Amino acid sequence: MGTDYVHGYTPAETRRLADQAGTLADLLHGGTTYAPGSRVLEAGCGVGAQTVQLVTRSPGIDLVSVDVSEESLAEAKSRVAAAAPYATVDWRHADLLDLRGEKFDHVFVCFVLEHLADPTDALARLREYLNPGGTITVIEGDHGSAIYHPRSPSAQAVVDCLVDLQAEAGGDSLIGRRLHPLLQQAGYGDVRVEPRTVYADPARPELVDGFTRKTFIAMVESVRERALAAGLRTEAEWAAGIRDLERAAEAGGTFHYTFFKGVGRR
Amino acid sequence: MGTDYVHGYTPAETRRLADQAGTLADLLHGGTTYAPGSRVLEAGCGVGAQTVQLVTRSPGIDLVSVDVSEESLAEAKSRVAAAAPYATVDWRHADLLDLRGEKFDHVFVCFVLEHLADPTDALARLREYLNPGGTITVIEGDHGSAIYHPRSPSAQAVVDCLVDLQAEAGGDSLIGRRLHPLLQQAGYGDVRVEPRTVYADPARPELVDGFTRKTFIAMVESVRERALAAGLRTEAEWAAGIRDLERAAEAGGTFHYTFFKGVGRR
To answer: Which of B180, B197, B258 lies at the smallest CB-CB distance from A202?
Structure first.
């Protein structure tokens, strides 16, 4: 199930994911708490940005956090150790689907499906790890929901690079709108999906900085080298696009993005 | 300030606006109530879809509802008479800006600015009608927020027709994202804008029917004749686009749209 991680593994990327988790924690995790003693699988924990939320919002759970990248796991361990030193996490360096025979009460998957060539298959396999009645929670973005002022074809061109590179790598950064059918196709029942919308304007400076700049624009910036190397944009086009995108984070600018959060039951 | 009303004045359009108001009433009007005795101006009441909400959610207000179309006003009167026979509304057949000398505690404007060539000027003039400390509430959509599954270039082409025809008529159907800067430029203080997101999938059949079909697709359909007459699409292209858009309202389909609601103070 391994695919290229389109955003790359760099300190800037680690910082981006941490900023994102801080600013968005309530928005994304709101409504998700697990009872003490529940056995929970975090499938694809990355650098631990969401792991910190899971252990602090659901104290006393028996959490297994899995990732294919040893570097990310090391980062995740130190992040959790710093933010929640009392928490115990069973860290596993493994493929998501390499837990054959284990069973969980709940599965949590955040910003993972967008990178997979066959998300339905992944969801169906994760379902096998659930005890009957257990739930899966899936959170994904959808870059098609990114609308901003001022509008700019140059800015849209760099956003489209992110979408195109993700698609070339076999993923789908427009996956949020598909969560409901994906969960249904994978065999889950009681499927409920909700939009979780981020909107940033000058009256919300913490979101302008934490989301527009340090999450969204930073995410677009993370594919710059790949976009240039692939010849998708020239250096000048890239710079102009980023410059225009930054106007959405300046006086008079606005930015809107929707995440989708879905829950299904085995 | 008169402009062509891009959606046209037909029974189907009247029905669309009523369905829209019913399904969306809580989403759009939530948080908006005016104290009994307040003098409120509804600028551009159209067929009264929002007027019914204003008089039922804020009983006892002194409401003046204005529209440039005599036909729409007649429709609005009978709608309010049927839905809220006890309500008294001071109906005015006039241009929005033809109330010189009058003063209000609050102004309410819904789905009007998108049709205007100079929304900042309109907002600035409406500000003159407010008593100091009075508020304006503005609600607008943004067709750029329309994302759906399955994706389809044919479907997007018919949605784009709506955007293009609105732009040709001097309006802007991507105006929602601009509400914050527009209100600021028009001189309002304490400006707060919130997204109000509609998301419809098979688990929400009332929204699939009331919003995806009877609001959004119906709105796109309302410009069919104009789009064909303008040569923007052939009949076959139009039919294919609508067919694809309808898939978003069928099994396995989803639809997402964001309205923006802004409040400012004089």
So the answer is: B180
Q: Determine the Cα–Cα distance for residues A80 and A83; give it in Å rounded to an integer.
A: 5
pLDDT band at B67 (very low <50, low <70, confident <90, very high): very high
Q: Map tokens 């992040």 to a residue.
A: A79
pLDDT band at B24 (very low <50, low <70, confident <90, very high): confident
**Closest residue by Cα to residue A209 from A12, A10, A11, A19:** A19
Distances (CA, A) of B57 to A62, B87, B193: 48, 11, 21
Overall pTM > 0.90: yes
Q: Are the beta carbons of A174 and A145 closer than 8 angstroms? A: no
Whether residue A253 and residue B194 make contact (CB cut-off 8 A), yes or no, is: no
CA B108/CA B100 separation, integer angstroms: 17
Question: Of B144, B174, B191, which is closest to A203 when you measure between CB atoms?
Answer: B191
| Residue B149 in contact with partner chain A when CB distance is under 8 A | yes
Residues 160-179 (A) with a CB less than 8 A from some CB of B: 174, 177-178
* Domain extent listing, chain A: 11-265
Amino acid at residue number B192: R
**Least confident span in A2-11, B51-60, B77-86:** A2-11
What DSSP line would sit under B54-78, residue for residue?
HHHHSTT-EEEEEES-HHHHHHHHH
For residue A214, the model assigns a pLDDT of: 93
* Cα angle: A121, vertex A25, A31; to 5 degrees: 70
The CATH code that applies to domain B11-265 is 3.40.50.150
User: What pLDDT sits at residue A2?
Assistant: 39
